[in-house]
Structures are given as C-alpha cells and as structure tokens.
Design brief:
Length: about 230
C-alpha cells in the first residue's frame, strides 16, 4: 500500500497514535484527525486537549496505521492544531523498536564518561544520551583521534572492541561498565563527532543507572507538561 492509499484510509474524527521524542524520551499520544489532504500529503490532528504539544517541534513524527507507520515532518503546530506533512511509509521507527528508554542528561546535572587504557585517559566527556544498554558522547576531532589510538592500532578497526569505562551519574555516583564502540557520526562539518557505545554493567551498577534514567525521564515529562 502506497502513501496515497494510506492517507485515503485515514478516517476523519477517529484517533490515531502519534509518536515522537522529547530529549530522547518517547512521547506517544492518541489524537483525533481533523482533516486529510491526500494531494498535499497533509494530516491535521486536534491538539486542543494535548498536554505534550511542545514535544512536537523539531523531531520526526510517526503516525501509526495498523502495523505500518507514516514518517512525517511538522508542517505547523499552532494553537490547537498539529499539521503533519507525510514523507514516506516507514518501518517501525527506532523509538518503537528500542528496547530501553534513552534520555538526554540535564545541562545543570550532566553525566560524564571516562575512558582509560593503562595510564592514558580521556576524562569528563559529557554524555549526550544514555540508556540501560548504551551511551552516546560528543568529542572534538582531536579527542576522537586520541581515543581511537587508545583503543586501537592502525591495522584493526576499532568497532566491536571492548574496553573499560566509568560513567559518573549526578546523584548515584560512579559506575563501571564494559563498553563497545558501535558507531561514529560526524557533527558540525567534522569539528565534532558523536560516538555511540553499547555497554554492559554489573547488576548493582545497572540498578543505579536504571534509577537515574527513571528519575530523568520523569523530570523531562514533568517539564514538558508544564510548558
């Protein structure tokens, strides 16, 4: 079924699940459809009773239709109406498929990640997001080169190699993890890079991290409700 056929199947007046993220936290709501424009690939939702409307600003939005999803951009979010422009039919988005909630740490209470190999360490790299199974950090080009030289030699790819890391949580304290580099993404025209790591934790440290994530998720959603 193509995009036009899916748009034609949407019934005005019925509620559909609309999904996005806010600071890494999934936001899933059911809202009533006001109107649909098939030629313009637009869907309008009644947002008059939505407490999470501010979450729908910059991130991709997905509309669930049975087992299919429409990937959308925000066309407008004014007063009591959200209008989405449909890009394409999409497989289940990452926010749906993800096993664990991922949160963005607070600017006032950051999470720091340290990497050490022998006496050579890169310390206090800020985490940009964290979950029970992974952590993402942002590093300069120079620090990326230093980190990779610690983890790797010139003949072997750094991916899928494991190494020790320390994650410093705002209230729960430091926890130790076994990290595995999964991806490197260039940001700001190659000035900075986002590195994603899969992590393994001991039960006691996992409990601390889970406690932090649950509290941070509540903070994010409470703030969203108050906006």
């Amino acid at each position: 079924m193509d995009t036009a056929e899916l748009l034609k199947s949407i019934k005005v007046g019925e509620k559909y699940e609309v999904i996005t993220t806010w600071h890494g936290v999934p936001v899933k709501i059911k809202q009533k459809v006001r109107w649909v424009s098939v030629p313009d690939r637009l869907i309008s939702f009644d947002f008059s009773d939505c407490k999470f409307r501010r979450a729908f600003s910059n991130e991709k939005v997905y509309v669930k239709l049975g087992e299919l999803y429409l990937e959308c951009d925000i066309f407008s979010n004014i007063r009591d109406e959200l209008v989405l422009r449909v890009d394409m039919v999409s497989p289940p988005p990452p926010v749906v498929m993800r096993e664990f909630v991922r949160v963005e740490p607070s600017e006032s209470q950051p999470v720091y990640v340290s990497f050490c190999a022998g006496e050579d360490c890169i310390v206090s790299a800020k985490a940009v997001d964290v979950s029970e199974s992974g952590v993402g950090i942002m590093l300069s080009k120079e620090d990326v080169a230093k980190l990779l030289s610690m983890l790797n030699n010139s003949e072997v790819e750094p991916y899928h190699k494991t190494f020790s890391m320390v994650i410093e949580l705002p209230e729960e304290g430091s926890i130790s993890a076994l990290g595995e580099l999964k991806n490197i993404l260039s940001k700001d025209e190659g000035i900075y890079f986002r590195l994603g790591f899969k992590i393994e934790l001991k039960p006691a440290d996992l409990k601390k991290l889970r406690s932090y994530i649950m509290k941070r998720q509540r903070e994010i959603l409470d703030k969203l409700k108050s906006l």
